[in-house]
User: Fold these one by one.
Assistant:
Number 1:
Amino acid sequence: MSLEGWINWVISWAYTPYGVLALFVNAFAESSFFPVPPDLLLIALSLLRPSWALGYAAMCSVGSVLGGVLGYFLGLKGGRPLLERLISEERIRLVERYYQKYDLWAVGIAGFTPIPYKAFTISAGVFVLDLKRFVLISLVSRSARFFLVGLMIYLFGETIKFYITKYFDIFSIAFVVLLIMGFVAIRFFSKGMGRKDETSTERSME
């Protein structure tokens, strides 16, 4: 199934009696192995019931953090071989450099942006980073991301509902583009950092 197909399938759960459970499962799974972030399902559910938007955001945040903990322990128990099976070498190099530069705040960056979050949750376990700080930073960054969405819909209700509903297809396409850009950014920066390492190595040998 294509990424767009996965996204449409995830959104369709909003119109079933299992929408809230699907949101939790989506948020949980995306933090360790699933390709589709839960934002669109969160938006779809919140648009159907704006008064529940903050509750949906809380559910999404809890599911995402718990999924991140699973990703952490997968990395901790599976080690580098598991990471290399799930994530490309380019992403691994980039994530390592993010951790070297920003420490665990790299998790916060990934938690709030289109950069694939699971690359950082699994890597955090592989590199045996502090679990308590990992959970705390994940909770802050993921909650900030999801509550921003929920709060906008909760506060502006029907007004924002009209625009998002009217342009939901365009919004979905834009989301896919941002998601792909997150992967492209990883590829671009990992290559750039690789060149810097090669240059530094060459200079040190001169």
Number 2:
Amino acid sequence: MQIDEIALKPDLIALLGEKKCCFSLEDRWTYSFDASKERGVPDAVVFPSCSRDVCAIMGYAHGNKIPVVPRGAGSGLTGGAVPLNGGIVMVLERMNRILELDTKNLCAVVETGVITADLQTAAARENLFYPPDPASQAFSTIGGNIAENAGGMRGAKYGVTKQYVLGLEVVLPNGDLVTLGSKCIKDVVGYSMTELFVGSEGTFGIITKAILKLVTRPETVKTLAICFSSIQDAGGAVPLLLKSGVVPCTLEFIDAACLQAVLARGIGDELEQQIHGDTKAMLLIEVDGSAHEVERDAAMVLKICKESGMLSCRLARDPDERERLWQVRRSIHGALMGLCPQWLEEDISVPPASIPMMLDKLQRLAGAKNLRILCFGHYADGNIHLSVSEADAPLTPQQALVVKKEIFSETVKLGGRIAAEHGIGSVKKEYLGFNLDEPTLNLAMGVKKMLDPRGILNPGKIFPQQIWDKGYGSD
């Protein structure tokens, strides 16, 4: 049955009411894209306000074999929220209540549409802390973070989203509502299925509620911006730092080109006066904990960096200066747009000790093909964000295809992964074979087909077309 043969508009209005549905082309176009370059116009957009609404939509879609794409804030970078096959986009932003902040058991119960930063603010009022901090935290939703297993800059010390998910409420593709996990630290009742849905990119079920672990808020923090003459010197400091027993809550690296792009926009003027002229790499390091621990750890960081060839160091003296240092890091993407209107952007990971080797490979690739490859990322967990263009223009689609394959190939040679924290979505699905062999992909497809036998939930994502056709058929 084709969607145009179904009375989609009256049926959805009957299920949800007019105020929870949009059908005009202008409204549908608004939900045809995310932060990637992918596009797809849905046939309808719905705004459920409770789990019951989600169950009703999924039961209807399952019965009529209509694709459904769940959407949080639409801030994903790999096309995960784009309705490539039309159908229904389910926007979960109205399910945005913090249902409980349990200060005795150090956890929160939230609906899927809660903004990440709002949960962090609510936790902070109780002297508690929700550590996952994706760059999009000011607008991304908890449900989207869970669906993508979002990371962030504090991942090295505190881990990523999956470490904080204690339980979930999920609506399955057929409309059934299931509850997984609990507030209990020890819980072996039945299979442990919660993490199955973490990082599943909305292909297994739609998350409606979550129980999230909180931790005690650190007493204090110190932030250091440390300059080096090479990424090798900066990289040499990292394993020494980690072996010393210091566990930084953030350990970011920024290459010279990214740093200069930001400073050229007038961001970090005070910092520019502290940057040595020979700087080729900067580490932005933050340590947190008790006042005593932070003083001790900051002194150890400074000692090791000096021994590793540090050129200069800027220590934030107050919260305002700390914020200015982080503004440099957060401004990189915007600053790069001033150099080139369109970059090939990738998100890869390698074992942390291999970062200098990977950056060397990228620079050799840049030299061989007359490219600009600018890099920054999360050093302690091996996550590299990179932006690629020709020396003076964006890559053509053909060039982008070749360069992407070369980058992934070199990443895998070092034991790395083609996606670190931005997901697979539709943008990277045909490259999954770089990391996963066919039996592994077939196993994943088997789980997908068991949960979603009609293939309606976020189709066109994660799986290469050949695996999808093998699982569901090419029709």
Number 3:
Amino acid sequence: MCSNRLIFQAPLTRRSRRVVMIAAMAAVTLVLFSLLSIAHAQPAQPGQLPAMDAATRTAVVDSITAAIDSIYVLEEPAKRIVAGLKKNLADGKYDKLTDPAELAQRLHEDAQAINHDGHFRIFALPPLDPAVAEAERDEDPADVERRRRWYKTLNYGFKKVEILPGGIGYLRFDQFSHGDDAFEAAAASMNFLANTNAVILDLRNNGGGSAAMIRFICGYFFEDDTHLINWDIRAENKTVQSYSADYVPGKRLLEQPVYVLTSGNTFSAAEEFTFDLKNLERAIVVGDTTGGGGHTVAGYTFDFDGFRMGIRLPYGRAYNPENNEGWEGVGVVPDIPVSSDIALETAQIDALGKLIEKEEDEEFKSRLQWARLDLESRLNPIEMSRNEMEMYVGSYGPRRVYVEDGSLYYQREGRSPYKLEPMGDHLFRVGDLDYFRLTFDMDKSRAVKVIGLYSSGRRDENKRDDG
């Protein structure tokens, strides 16, 4: 999760810059500007910035370590990082680095070697044009409108919502957006799922975003505002408690089983959402362990002659208030660990199984079993040899089964042909007809009757024409 803030220091002389920056950071007195100047600027590459001297190099290390020492979320790792970078400086390990971009990369690598953090980053930037800074303070309305239209085009990350077989609701959203329009898109998606029997939330491609959206969507899954998580902010010596929204537009989804699909790309805010629902036993997590980014982050820059040094610095730690455990560095471990490629089908099968167990109406149960068998067969495809296919070839009244181009086909008189895909013992899926299947009665190694099966429970059959 990213907080939109940074330090911007006015240009200073080399002699005064170091003292002012360290004092400012030690007191944690921050001048806050929009993060756009970092988000829109590409980190400098080696050779793009003017060379720095030894005094500037020392000032860079002092500024970066002062920020880490004062703000980094965990005190003990912060002290180790600071001590390690300062020792490297004193030992002369950075003496040959005159390129700011190369120094930034080396500082980043050394810090990560001491304490890995997926949100942490040190980078060099070109100097900020004062005209650009002024423009960002008074942003062009055309740029604002262009950005609004673009986010609207993406539907604020809410990419797909549908009803799957068995009345299972599916929602894929790839970011936790913020703002009134984003909340309206979220509410529309959640209300579409209101009448489902179970809900699957696909976060396999969700890299994070706004904590406010976490609280909003969680509000649909709890009857009352519910304590989700705690955040410790070390620099401010305070703990922030996060609760689900006490009001959401439309129906809450309180009875439906909930599944969250994850992958190694599930990160930051998407991990908190997963972590919250799992710990509160409101969701079953299916897929791969998530990326392990459990800290919230802010951006800071330091101005030097001819370049800026930037740092993305984690400042808040998320954890379960019941046991003090978070997911930083370890990720959220799924309840059903499977490859993320088959997480959706796996969640569907599990959801259908739970619905079948509690269903008392036999006809409805049969429809649920029909859907589950289709999914199970797709996860475990069956290969057939040419000789095996030949067992079914023949005419059955108005029906015909034949082999063409190495595949088995079915065709009813006057209708289009469909490819047959094996689902089990003498049972076949018929093309994309999800309501119809074929099975065969066998006499040793030869089919003697074809039987049409329908999802409604109806069936019809025809004997082989030649007996």
Number 4:
Amino acid sequence: MTRQVKVKNILIGGGAQIPVQSMLNVPTSDVSASLRQIRKLEKAGCDLVRLTVNDEAAAKALPDIIAKSPVPLIADIHFDYRLAIAAINAGIAKLRINPGNIGDSKRVKAVAEAAGKAGVPIRIGVNSGSLREDVKNKVLSGKLSLGEAMGRHALGEAKLLERFGFRDIVISVKATNVPETVRAYEFLHENCDYPLHIGITEAGTVEDALLKSGAGLGHLLLKGIGDTLRISITGPVEKEAEAGRKLLQFLGLRPYGPEVVSCPTCGRTQVALEKVAESVGRALRSNRELKDFDCKVAVMGCVVNGPGEASAADVGLAGGKGYFLLFSKGKALRRVSPEEAVEALVNELLALKKGKKAKINK
């Protein structure tokens, strides 16, 4: 069990629900663009949003953004401790820094004291590319694995903050190498009780990022490691939030509206199943009434095995020759035409949410 940190109304660690994070990719100085992305992320299920505070213009924009943001915001700071203090004074909910790169101990102390007084937690972010030279040399010489090196480096940074009485700390140790990232988090899990922000950095475009993050973060989460997460994607930021929430949903850790399962098809398939499954997904995502409905939906390729194989589904479709069978919990409800199949499934879910019993047409 990790210690717990509070970021406004969001709890991290201590057994709390795992929050999903993402980061803006527009200049923070552009208030309108920043707020548009924040709202997109919030709609996609993001709980915390990080933004770059890299200069004075970004710092000056913070009060307007913070005042209108629907979710707590995290300021990403590198090198300039004065920007960290400016972000705190602007009302930021959390900082992300690497204490070792913001200057001498006096500057670290100034940030720690300001954050402590304001009740602002700090995430120590150590990436494979930000290791101190002495630590990096140990990795290159084979004395330390990259994973353990990142973990040890992060603990050293945490001790620096704790020297000044600051303990509201979250740690992240990310690399693009999945096994080394896993080793780093396992090392921290065994050697500290700080809440851990997990992620694979520079994971690539959508397909690669989902595979890398699913492999690494899924492994950690199934072992009980990870208190908050980000799935990093080179692409639309809302994809990160959607992927993070879906990963937690698939692992049974947090609901995220209807979960769609579909079969991989076989020689018995007599319908364009991929097209139908995609249509079902779009229909469910666009229906506001079903957005928070925790249920399972199945789209299966044949009526022979489909309903039985998907007997856990609250509502499902199974393809026949020229028709679909609408079913619930493995029991047939009625036949519907391909044209009305998606709408019939959505209506059945809406009725189920309202507590109405399914109608069976024999």
